[in-house]
Specification:
binds adenosine monophosphate; 9 helices; 6-stranded parallel beta sheet
């Protein structure tokens, strides 16, 4: 496995692979890698000739009061996981942006609600870094987890709108045995909060099962699910149209998604489940 520490090294490596006619797959991450990240690597490993993982804690996607400075880091652990997953190149730059960087990529509509509302500027940071990374890595495929469902939808919109030659491949949510969605931020949780956090998934699962049993009223579903969450505060719990991420009043024929963000002390966790008609990825 090659370790690439600069944007020049990344570009040169990508140019070599492309010149040899090889297909590049890419998993962008912020590091502190876990089995959720590994599942995205496995998803792409057999679809491409060369697999690239980036580890970069992107300041652009953190708000002023967020956890940029204390975001967990473990460069050697990340390298070991990537090696074990057959990664060809690990791109771990100290700096990703050139001096004077002044460009921002914004995806509207899909970012009106959910994390877009609670974290102003977050998705502009994500869209901007991914646009830059896609150009540096020159990947034909990039995997993103359904764990960050809104992010996944934003990235799909972005590559379509800007005609970027990258296929966005969605990966299912990897969970701990008790149902908690794996997240680098789970490392922040106290034992007490770690025991409470699976209530997020249980509440969402309850909601999806109520829909399967015939409940259609979103207010009823949200109230019932919220009552099942044990946290220090629910930032949002919404049922959205899965494709547009706009609120729905009632479950209809279109695929929907229930999404939650909740606080445990200073830690903010998110999760989501499919609701009603299944979403088919094209
Ligand atoms: P992050 O390092 O948190 O920025 O995540 C990097 C990528 O891994 C994103 O596409 C996430 O959606 C994905 N990811 C994070 N946690 C999980 C999980 N539990 N299951 C599947 N994908 C995940």
């Amino acid at each position: 496995m090659q370790r690439l520490a600069t944007t020049d090294a990344m570009s040169a490596w990508a140019a070599e692979q492309r010149a040899a006619g090889l297909r590049i797959g890419f998993v962008p991450t912020m590091g502190f890698l876990h089995a959720g990240h590994a599942s995205l690597m496995r998803l792409l490993r057999d679809r491409v000739d060369r697999l690239v993982v980036s580890v970069y804690v992107n300041p652009l996607q953190f708000g002023p009061d967020e956890d940029l400075d204390r975001y967990p880091r473990d460069a050697e652990g990340d390298a070991a996981l990537c090696r074990a997953e057959g990664v060809d190149a690990l791109f771990m730059p100290d700096e990703l942006y050139p001096d004077g960087f002044s460009t921002q990529v914004a995806v509207h509509g899909l970012t009106d609600h959910l994390c877009g509302r609670g974290r102003p500027g977050h998705f502009e940071g994500v869209a901007t870094v991914c646009t830059r990374l896609f150009h540096l890595v020159r990947c034909q495929e990039a995997a993103f987890g359904e764990k960050d469902f809104q992010q996944l939808m934003v990235l799909r919109r972005l590559v379509t709108d800007l005609a970027l030659p990258v296929r966005i491949v969605p990966g299912a949510i990897a969970r701990a045995p008790d149902g908690l969605a794996l997240s680098s931020r789970n490392a922040y949780l106290s034992e007490h909060d770690r025991a409470r956090a699976p209530s997020l998934q249980r509440a969402l699962r309850w909601l999806a099962e109520e829909v399967d049993a015939g409940e259609r009223c979103v207010d009823t579903l949200i109230a019932g699910a919220k009552a099942r969450i044990d946290s220090d505060g629910v930032e949002y719990l919404e049922v959205m149209d899965a494709a547009t991420l706009q609120p729905v009043d009632a479950i209809g024929d279109r695929p929907a998604r229930a999404l939650v963000a909740a606080r445990y002390g200073a830690t903010r966790l998110i999760d989501n489940v499919a609701v009603g008609a299944p979403l088919t990825w094209t």
